[in-house]
Structures are given as structure tokens and as C-alpha cells.
Specification:
The protein is an alpha+beta fold. The chain is built from 13 helices and nine strands. The chain is globular and about 60 Å long. It starts with a helix and ends in a 5-residue tail after the last helix.
């Protein structure tokens, strides 16, 4: 979609605030984020085209954009240095190149209070769904490498969204939403609220293990969805992990679980027609497990490996709970495109969760096959 009028003017102003090359040419909406708005902007300079990604940060979700950008820049710098050290070429395709504003900031606040950031466009391909084993392996390899590359990261990062993957907190949010019933939707989804509470031990138990220090925290991506890895258009090899907004302390299990729930699901989270037939494709699961372990397995400790199966259940149940909560609250958090969109997403993830539970033994067998023996 190409914009005209007021939106174009706003984007153009944001463009002009950044210290980047070229004259503004056009802006197209891109990406499928549920939170931020993303635009691909082209600029011209003496016949040469420059391509940028501009994002309007949703400040009701990310209330402290300065902290968010602090994290992002630290992480990007760390990755760039590591890749350069290992002789990787074409660094601007392999790690985000973040630009500053003309006044030296990492984001620009426009007259309506919207925050904008800018990085170089990477010409590759992202996927919403995949069956190709090699590409699935590559996506998982990228997330495994991300974890492994962050092993020697020394800086402190801010917690951009508190309690982000805390299952107990997400359960309390659902409980609160059900009590308030602000949008009057509770009765239509009561059976799914009951479903979450019947399965609440899966939301709570990993959090217990984290709180008691059994499962360690490290720096993780925290939004390891299938569409947050850019693959090379021709070769399908992984180029770059994107969407670094929630990179902060977390469990590697969150990343593994998020990757599985988004990449091994037979049905897209966004599909209203088939959301009740969502299920875990064990073949896709195997490719992802293998890729993740090949790149990141060496840095995992035994307590992380022991909880992989539990994490796969947790993440599908947790995002199902978050979508259900938002639906009951009247769609105040995730962007929606139709009335029951959040309920569709909730149903999809809750059906996936049920399928993951049914295949638990199979999942365990595969985990044994691909993980290093415990240390
Ligand atoms: C949101 O906007 P997007 O797709 O990057 C959400 C994730 C969810 C995801 C569900 C900050 O991510 O936690 O897993 O939707 N991000 C935030 O598709 O809440
Ligand atoms: Mg995200």
C-alpha cells in the first residue's frame, strides 16, 4: 500500500529528521507486526535508490522508547562486532544498521508524540508459514546463533516490558479481564477461559523454576516468531534476525517455544477459517529443533534442555491467553483487522497447545535425539 495525504506528510517529516542519504521518494506499508507500524521508504540520490525501514513505535506498549533503543543499539553493535571478527562480509545484510537523527538521537518524536526509528532495508524474504525443511532449519539456526552470540554480552539491558513472559502474570491478567468483562464478551468465550484455568499449571510451573533459579536467565530475543528472520531470497540461508524490541533478560526456553508455536503450527495464527484445526506438525518441529540445537545447543545447560517440552506448551498457552485476555478487554493491546481477530488468534494458539500436549511423548523422543547429553 502506497500512501498519500496526511500519512505521507507525517512519514516524510520523520524521514527528514534522520541523518540519511537521498530525497524522499515513496513509502509503502510493510510487515505484519501486531504492535508497531512499519514502512519501507525509498529515497533517490542522483539516480541511485536508497531503501530504508521506518517504524512508528507503539508507545502505549513500549512506554520508554529511549530504553528500547538503548537495548537495540547495544545488541546490534555486539552482533556486528562478532560477525566482523569472524570475517563475515556484507555486514549490512547480516545485522540491522540503525541510523540516528540529525540531532544524534536514535529515535525521532513527531509533533503528535509518535516515536520513529530508522534502519537500512535488508533485501531478503520473511515467511509467515513454511513447510520447506531447509528453510525451517535455517530459521531455527538463526535463533540458535542469536542465543550463542549473546553468551559473551556484558552490558545490562533494560526490561522494556515488565513480566513479559511471566505465565503467572498472564494468568492474573486473564482473571482480571474476566472479572471486569469490559467489552461484555466474557459469556461468549467462557469455555476458553475455563480451558486456560484448567491448564494453568503449564503457565505457572516454568515461572516457578525461573523464580527459584532452577532455569537460568540470559539475554534472549523474546519474540522469536517465524517472520522475524530474514532469509536470502535466492539461497534461503539466514541473513538477519530482526524485531529486537524485546531483547532483554529471559529464558532461552521462551525463544524456543515462540519459534515452535509460530513455525511448526499447521495453521497461521491469522487464519480465521481453520483456527480450530491448528496443530503441531512434528516434522516441522524436528527441523526447527535440529537447526536450533546445531547453532545454540552448546551453550544450553541441562536445566534448560530438561524443560524444552514444557516451554513448547507454555508459549502456545501463554500467547493464547494473552490474545484471549485482549479480546475480553475489547482489543486494547494487539492491532486487529476484524471484530473477532483476537479471538481467532487465541483459538488458534489454544488448539495448538492441545495438540502439543497430545504429542508430548513424540516431542520428548526428538528432544533426546537432538540435544547434547546433559552437563
Ligand atoms: C506481538 O508485533 P509482533 O508480531 O512483533 C507481541 C508478541 C506476540 C506476537 C503474537 C511486544 O509481536 O509478544 O508473540 O505479537 N509483541 C509484543 O503474534 O507484545
Ligand atoms: Mg515483535
Amino acid at each position: 500500500m502506497i500512501f498519500g495525504g496526511k500519512v505521507k506528510k507525517t512519514i516524510r517529516k520523520a524521514f527528514e529528521a534522520f541523518d540519511i542519504r537521498g530525497e524522499f521518494d515513496c513509502a509503502k506499508r510493510c510487515g505484519n507486526g501486531n504492535i508497531n507500524n512499519t514502512y519501507h521508504i525509498t529515497a533517490r540520490e542522483e539516480g541511485v535508490l536508497h531503501n530504508y525501514i521506518f517504524q512508528r513505535i507503539n508507545t502505549s506498549v513500549f512506554t520508554e522508547p529511549d530504553k528500547l533503543m538503548h537495548n537495540l543499539v547495544r545488541v546490534v553493535d555486539h552482533h556486528r562486532a562478532a560477525l566482523a571478527k569472524s570475517g563475515v562480509e556484507d555486514l549490512d545484510k547480516r545485522v540491522l544498521k540503525v541510523f540516528k537523527t540529525r540531532s544524534g538521537e536514535h529515535f525521532y518524536t513527531d509533533s503528535s508524540g509518535n516515536c520513529w526509528r530508522c534502519h537500512l532495508f535488508i533485501d531478503g524474504k520473511t515467511h509467515e508459514s513454511l513447510e520447506d525443511p531447509e528453510k525451517l532449519f535455517n530459521i531455527a539456526y538463526a535463533y540458535g546463533s542469536f542465543i550463542s552470540n549473546m553468551e559473551d554480552f556484558q552490558d545490562e539491558l533494560h526490561e522494556t516490558i515488565p513480566n513479559f513472559h511471566d505465565g503467572k502474570f498472564r494468568l492474573r491478567q486473564l482473571e482480571q479481564a474476566a472479572i471486569e468483562n469490559r467489552a461484555g464478551r466474557l459469556s461468549s468465550v467462557q469455555e476458553w477461559v475455563d480451558f486456560v484455568f484448567e491448564n494453568s499449571s503449564d503457565l505457572v510451573s516454568l515461572q516457578d523454576k525461573i523464580e527459584t533459579g532452577i532455569v537460568p536467565l540470559r539475554i534472549t530475543h523474546n519474540d522469536a516468531k517465524i517472520n522475524n528472520v530474514i532469509l536470502d531470497k535466492e539461497t534461503g540461508r539466514p541473513l538477519c534476525v530482526i524485531d529486537l524490541d524485546t531483547v532483554m533478560k529471559g529464558s532461552v526456553l521462551f525463544d524456543f517455544g515462540d519459534m515452535i508455536r509460530s513455525a511448526a503450527n499447521t495453521v497461521s495464527e491469522e487464519s480465521p477459517e481453520q483456527c480450530c484445526s491448528a496443530s503441531l506438525d512434528i516434522k516441522r518441529f524436528e527441523c526447527l529443533l535440529e537447526g536450533f540445537m546445531q547453532a545454540g545447543g552448546d551453550v544450553l545447560v541441562s536445566s534448560e534442555i530438561e524443560h524444552i517440552n514444557q516451554a513448547v506448551r507454555l508459549l502456545s498457552l501463554m500467547i493464547g491467553t494473552r490474545f484471549l485476555t485482549d479480546y475480553i478487554n475489547g482489543d486494547v493491546y494487539f492491532k486487529i483487522r476484524w471484530e473477532d481477530h483476537n479471538f481467532t488468534r487465541a483459538l488458534n494458539n489454544l488448539h495448538l497447545y492441545a495438540s502439543i500436549k497430545r504429542q508430548s511423548d513424540h516431542i520428548d523422543n526428538l528432544i533426546r535425539k537432538y540435544t547434547p547429553s546433559c552437563r
